[in-house]
Amino acid sequence: MTPATLSAGDDIPSGAQPIEVRVPELARLFNAIDPSPFRERDLDPAAEEFIIDWSRDLPADAPLALIVYLSRSRSADEVAVLRDAVRENFERRAVTARRTLRELFRRGRVSLLIGLGALAASVTLGDLLRTLLPSGGVGSLLSESILIGGWVAMWRPLEIFLYDWWPIRADERLFLRLRDMPVRIVYEETAPTSERE
């Protein structure tokens, strides 16, 4: 005989990719050291990472849905508490990612100014050395080394503007998708002997 199940919460649209979490009670999803009320409480770091990791394995353009299986505790406001907590948690993560991205671009602009200044100085110094020192030998080696140093100074701003920003932007998009996903709780009625702590 299969156990009876009841569920409550948002409707899960067809085509939504479910993220499934199974806990004995809702309190296990929240950070135990956070003294805030449930609605304002952070998700437990392990639960949050589990949800994020699962969502990263799903198609990037698919709608997401969170389904939480509870084996006990059923109060009228559990779904609202969970929905609000999930939305607040991932909204904060999206805001943090946005702030990190702004800071990265600010650092990139400063790095770009420094890199361009170093490159201009190295080109000028290299040209000056070529006119002051005889061509070939040590003069050419020194001039080319300074020019290479100027291009190396451009490495960090180019890395920021070409590569570093898009993983942060992808995280922000993921957190916004997680914030907006429907949340449903499925209550699993189990015999008391089958419960394990």
Q: Could you outline the blueprint of secondary structure elements for this entry?
A:
Blueprint: E1 5-9, E2 17-23, H1 45-56, E3 64-70, H2 78-132, H3 137-152, H4 155-180, E4 183-188
Parallel strand pairs: 2-3, 3-4
Antiparallel strand pairs: 1-4
Helix pairs in contact: 2-3, 2-4
Structure commentary:
- With 197 residues, this protein is of the alpha/beta class.
- It has 2 domains: 5-96 and 182-194, no CATH class; 102-172.
- It is built from 4 helices and 4 strands.
- The protein has helices at 45-56, 78-132, 137-152, 155-180; strands at residues 5-9, 17-23, 64-70, 183-188.
- It has a 4-stranded mixed β-sheet with strand order 1-4-3-2, with helices on one face.
- Helix 1 links the parallel strand 2 (17-23) and strand 3 (64-70).
- It is rod-shaped.
- The two termini are 23 Å apart.
- Residues 191-197 have low confidence and may be disordered.
